[in-house]
Amino acid sequence: MTATTHEKALSELRKSGDRLFFQQNGQTISPWHDMPLFAARQMETLNMVVEIPRKSHSKMEISKDDQYNPIKQDVSKGEPRAIADVLPFQGYPCNYGPCNYGALPQTWESPNIVDTKTGIPGDNDPLDVCEIGNQPLGGFAVLDEGETDWKVVAIDLNDPLASNLSDIQDVDAVRPGYLDFLKAWYKLYKVPDGKPENTIALGGRLEDQRCYVEWKKTRTGHPG
């Protein structure tokens, strides 16, 4: 499924309230368990499952409990969940620049394993990705309701800026303020729902590609 087809399907999904299943060679597959993490043998380019396309307000996510893990809209108190506007932001942090949000297949932030950097267990979800993508540049950790929730920042190899971005430090040169924007949004986005602010772990420090080695270990459940 191409990115364009994928985003169109999610748009239709939001209207129908149904679930989006993935198929390969005519067979239904799980985007979490069956899709490979690595898109190439060099293990430097990753596959990404887009859950929330850019400029979307609907809280779409991989269903961990349904068979084949389709994408569907999250429900809160019996109502389809939307992403609240947090001034000065609107919707998911996509209006500021191209940003698809999703997950890395074959990964899992275990709630039973203490993160070696934050000292707090994971959130029981796949690793999150903010695509500004396919090649990891770095990331930052969010402490969300007492759980570690890493946000991997990556660049789509088809993006015209890809040749200018090789590590997390390069992002500010081509998109000044973008990473500060992302961190600020993740700190505040649950406040309209009556929840406290999240904490950006490690003093807001951005982790570079060296942290990628540890994310690889997250795939196997052996971060030590």
UniProtKB/TrEMBL annotation:
The keyword Metal-binding applies. One of its GO terms (molecular function) is inorganic diphosphate phosphatase activity. Keywords: Hydrolase, Magnesium, Metal-binding. Its cofactor is Mg(2+). It comes from the Eukaryota. One of its GO terms (biological process) is phosphate-containing compound metabolic process. GO terms for cellular component: cytoplasm. Its EC number is 3.6.1.1. InterPro entries: Pyrophosphatase (IPR008162), Pyrophosphatase_sf (IPR036649). PROSITE patterns: PPASE (PS00387). Belongs to the PPase family. PANTHER family: INORGANIC PYROPHOSPHATASE. This is inorganic diphosphatase. It comes from Aspergillus caelatus. The lineage of its organism: Eukaryota, Fungi, Dikarya, Ascomycota, Pezizomycotina.
